[in-house]
Each structure stands twice: as structure tokens, then as C-alpha cells.
Specification:
With 230 residues, the protein is mainly α. The chain has helices spanning 10-24, 39-49, 54-67, 73-79, 85-99, 105-119, 123-136, 141-153, 157-170, 175-187, 191-204, 209-221.
Length: 230
């Protein structure tokens, strides 16, 4: 059973792919100078998000991704259940962009540098970068999430779990962190808890096909019936 989550195993590879998608979805680079929304613009976009035309909804969520703040996340989370698949994926990317933006040009520039270090495989250097951000602005949730990811990649599971707990304390709807915790518990062989966290992640964001596949595989190996077969 433990071989299932080794990096060389097929499920382990799929889970690592899922993790890396959680790192890089929405693009490595985020705009550093973002014109924040005033209330008039925000209400305009919120109304657009309710429009019957999928293209209008998509445009609203694109704008929220580029200019939105944490207060706009509930609208984006709701869009993960939109009837149109393309709208759902745009909303997912927009959420990552909002998560990855603190709203301070200096902090956001350092964060972007950390992302570039991650994409270049310079994990130890990136770890120092995100730790520095956390020390300066401990309420920047995504800095904790990126450091949790790095700890995972460096096989420092206890530290990764600690950071994931902090992410979920600050942002309980963080489907990336929920997925990450499932990956950690899978690697440790605690498949029951891994399944629980994958299920929670999919409740927030049902569009993560790799997570759904990982969940299905774990359920098979644990002898549970697939969802829909009960």
C-alpha cells in the first residue's frame, strides 16, 4: 500500500502533478500594480457575474481575478458551480490570482520572486523568500500555502502540515490547501484522512479532475464503493 504514494508509483505521480498544478495554476506571474475596485465597479462586476450570458459572466470573473480582493472571493467560490465549464475554470484561475496578491507592491514583488524561484526548482531559496514574507505579513495566506508546498517537496511533512493548518485557519475554503493536506496524508499512508480532505476540496471546487481521479483511486484501494455506486 505504501508504494501507492511513492514518487515512482503511478498514483504518486498523479498526486505530485496535482500538487504542482496547485502551485502554478493561473500562471507564475501576477500583476504587481493592480488598480483596486471602487464600490461602483465592484457592484457592476457582481451584477455581470449573475448575467444569463456566459461570456458576460466570464468577463466579470476575469476582471475580479485581475482587480478583486479577498472580499470578492465568495462570488468567485460560487462561480465554481457555474453551469458553463469555461466560466468555472476562469473563476478558478481568478481565485488563485486573488489569493496570490497581497495588495502591497513591495510584498507582491517579493512573492512573484518566490514563485519564479519555485518554477526554477530553487526550493531552498524560495523557502527563505516565503518565510521572509510570512515574518513581515503573517496574514498573507498564500505565502503560508506556498511554504507548505515547498516543505512537502523537501519531504518536511510535519512543517508542511503545520503551514497547511495555518492556511485553512485563515482561509477554510482554500481548495489547494485541502488538496495538499490530502497529499500529505496519502504519502504517510493515512488514506482515510486523505480521502476526507480530497472530498472536502472537491466540495469547494468540483472541477479538479486530477483530485477526483486521486480520490477514486484511493477509494478503490481501500475497498470503498465509488461515489454513485452506493
Amino acid at each position: 500500500m505504501n508504494s501507492l504514494v511513492r514518487r515512482g508509483g503511478s498514483i504518486g505521480q498523479q498526486m505530485l502533478t496535482t500538487l504542482l498544478m496547485c502551485i502554478f495554476v493561473g500562471g507564475t506571474f501576477f500583476p504587481l500594480q493592480v488598480q483596486s475596485l471602487d464600490e461602483k465597479d465592484r457592484q457592476f462586476l457582481i451584477e455581470g457575474a449573475k448575467h444569463q450570458d456566459a461570456d458576460v459572466r466570464a468577463g466579470a470573473f476575469l476582471s475580479l481575478g485581475e482587480r478583486g480582493e479577498r472580499q470578492d472571493l465568495p462570488h468567485l467560490y460560487s462561480a465554481l458551480y457555474d453551469a458553463d465549464y469555461s466560466v468555472r475554470k476562469i473563476a478558478e484561475t481568478a481565485i488563485w490570482k486573488v489569493w496570490g496578491r497581497y495588495g502591497n507592491d513591495e510584498i507582491d514583488a517579493v512573492f512573484a520572486e518566490g514563485l519564479n524561484q519555485m518554477s526554477a526548482g530553487r526550493f531552498v531559496l524560495a523557502l527563505k523568500t516565503f518565510t521572509g514574507i510570512i515574518e513581515r505579513v503573517p496574514d498573507f495566506t498564500e505565502a503560508w500555502n506556498k511554504r507548505a508546498t515547498l516543505y512537502y517537496l523537501l519531504n518536511r511533512d510535519n512543517e508542511s502540515m503545520s503551514d497547511v493548518h495555518e492556511v485553512l485557519r485563515q482561509e477554510p475554503m482554500h481548495f489547494g490547501a485541502l488538496t495538499g493536506y490530502g497529499l500529505l496524508k496519502s504519502r504517510q499512508g493515512d488514506y482515510r484522512v486523505a480521502i476526507k480532505y480530497f472530498e472536502q476540496a472537491l466540495l469547494v471546487n468540483p472541477n479538479m479532475k486530477d483530485v477526483a481521479h486521486n480520490l477514486e483511486q484511493l477509494e478503490k484501494y481501500r475497498g470503498r464503493p465509488r461515489r454513485g455506486e452506493i
